Amino acid sequence: MTAERITTAVNRFGLGARAGEWQATGTDPRGWLLAQLGPPADIPAFQGLPDSTGYLGMYLAAQQQRKQMRARKEEGEGARAGGREALRRAFQRELVLRQSVAVTTSQGFRERLVRFWSNHFAISVDKRIASLFAAPMEREAIRPHVTGRFSALLQSVEQHAGMLLYLDNAQSIGEGSRMAMQSARRNADNPAARKRGLNENLAREILELHTLGVDSGYTQHDVAEVARAITGWSVARHGNGERAAGSGGFLFRASAHEPGLRQVLGKPYRQQGEQQGVAILQDLAVHPATAQHLSMKLARHFVADVPPPALVARMAKVWLRTDGDLAQVCAAMVEDNLAWQAGARKFKTPDDFLMSALRGCGLQEPQDLAQALQLQTQLGQPVFQPRSPAGFGDVAADWGGPDALYKRVQAAQAIAGRLRTAQQHTPLALGLAMLGNGLDAQTATALRRAESVQQGVALLLGSPAFQWRV
Questions:
Q1: 258 DSSP assignment
Q2: For residues 142 and 238, what is the distance between their CA atoms, to the nearest angstrom?
Q3: Can you give the three-state secondary structure of 151-168, one letter per residue?
Q4: Which residues pair with 268 in a beta bridge?
Q5: How many CA atoms lie within 13 A of 70 on its CB side?
């Protein structure tokens, strides 16, 4: 039983076994997981990277250069191309470093929590203005809070430039705000003049996706009231001499804020300015519907596509008792025997598949990581490019189609081809190191018969056993 639980701790709760990880887990897999729920530590790989305020300055500088060069087409094209290329290289560097941290970390459970919350608060680089901020948002707004209180995580994300730009709140203006009144006076003789107004995108996703969940009882009135409460939540424009409040690029623009009392879910909020939206988020973070919705998502991600209702109920109870202390909620999950029951397993997403393959094969050079990023796109889960704010799917039906499995076999061959002489072990030894007692007899026989290490590893990574977190 202990061997099975060690396998589960490393491969289902974590990101997959690295060399020596079985030994590091010891004989107390639960304790090994619980030890990863402490305060966050600095990650040396991220030191020296620009923060979101810096990226925002780079983006605005490139835009300004583009405007200045527009009159001279040839030079303007070069400037635009040069600016885009610099930003593209910065984004690619972020992705490679992010993958490097995941492949080399000794805290796979904690890193999986980062990825879980990053997908929960999904933004997509498909929207160009948000493309620079997906990775920094994970670094700045998510990583520091994954084992803290959910209210802090929620506020940090909703006030980050990435989320504010992705869901258009940076341009949202209250109908009765000073900015709206000034615009109306300026355009008194030109009513057809284009003007910005209230944008409900972020407010809707806060209620539907980030906290309460769909069908939890909120109304369109609540959406509109949350949207009005967070008017003025914007990003700093350095060209105007504005300065962000912190690394995430957030700026409260008081002139755009809708004044007055707001009423959400039947409760009045009389706070002024930025604090009105903050107060609403704090209440949403500890609402019973939020506790149920997010406990369900956590259990579905870590335990099974249909997690035991009793486990979800216990986690939600801890959520409410501790005011959304995520470390205690996760501890309640880990300590519950229902999370370890026979048959509990998760089908690997493309990200899971590639991270566990790289970790198991010891592939962590920049070129290995860059190739894995390309493979992840081919497998249908390009990093930070979900199809919607709901993020990527998290159940087997989202990833287990015949075409998807065929592409995994191709990816397995590509990864096996990168094995270097110094990393070569017998395929069977690698299979045992990666899957532990999850290595079935049929796969073990195939690995013994492999004609080369590369062929054996390709068989291992493409095997049915490797597709599951068990």
A1: P
A2: 24
A3: HHHHHHHHCCHHHHHHCC
A4: 263
A5: 6
% residues pLDDT > 90 (the chain): 79
pLDDT per residue as tens digits for the range 114-164: 999 999 999 997 887 777 899 999 999 999 999 999 999 999 999 999 999
| pTM, rounded to two decimals | 0.94
Domain boundary assignment for the chain: 2-37+345-469, 288-340
C-alpha–C-alpha distance, residues 372 and 414, integer Å: 9
**CA 202 from centroid of its chain's CA atoms:** 17
Return all residues near 419 (Cβ < 8 A) that are at least 6 apart. Answer: 361, 363, 453, 454, 457
Mean model confidence pLDDT for the chain: 92
Q: Do 170 and 228 form a contact (C-beta atoms < 8 A)?
A: no
| Longest CA pairwise span in the chain (Å) | 83
Torsion of CA 166, 168, 169, 175, to 10 degrees: -170
Written as one letter, the residue type at 462 is G
Q: Quick check: 251 and 235 in contact, CB under 8 A?
A: yes
End-to-end Cα distance, the chain: 13
Quote the Cα angle for 356-134-303, to 5°: 40
Spatial separation of the C-alpha atoms in residues 238 and 85, rounded to whole Å? 22
Whole-angstrom distance, CA of residue 40 vs CA of residue 337: 27
Read off the pLDDT of residues 200-254 as tens digits, 9 standing for 90 and up.
999 999 999 999 999 999 999 999 999 999 999 999 976 566 778 777 899 999 9
Quote the tokens at residue 403.
């075409």
CA count, 13 A, side-chain hemisphere, 249: 32
Q: Where are the beta strands (DSSP E) in 126-206?
A: none
Token pair belonging to 404? 């998807």
Q: Are 96 and 67 in contact (CB under 8 A)?
A: no
Query: Which of the four pLDDT bands, split at 50, 70 and 90, describes residue 407?
Result: very high
Distance (Å, whole) CA 292 – CA 286: 10
What is the DSSP secondary structure assignment for residue 262, as one 8-state letter? E
- Is residue 109 classed exposed, middle or buried when 0-12, 13-18 and 19+ CB atoms within 10 A define those classes? buried
Q: What is the enclosing helix (H) or strand (E) of 250?
A: strand 250-252
Q: What Cα–Cα distance (Å) separates residue 415 from each residue in 28, 364, 434? A: 32, 12, 15
Closest CA to 234 of 136, 164, 138, 162: 164
Q: Residue 263: which H helix or E strand, with range?
A: strand 262-264
List phi, psi (to 5°) of 216.
Answer: -100, 5
DSSP letter (8 states) at residue 169: G
**Cα torsion angle, 350, 354, 355, 356, sign:** positive
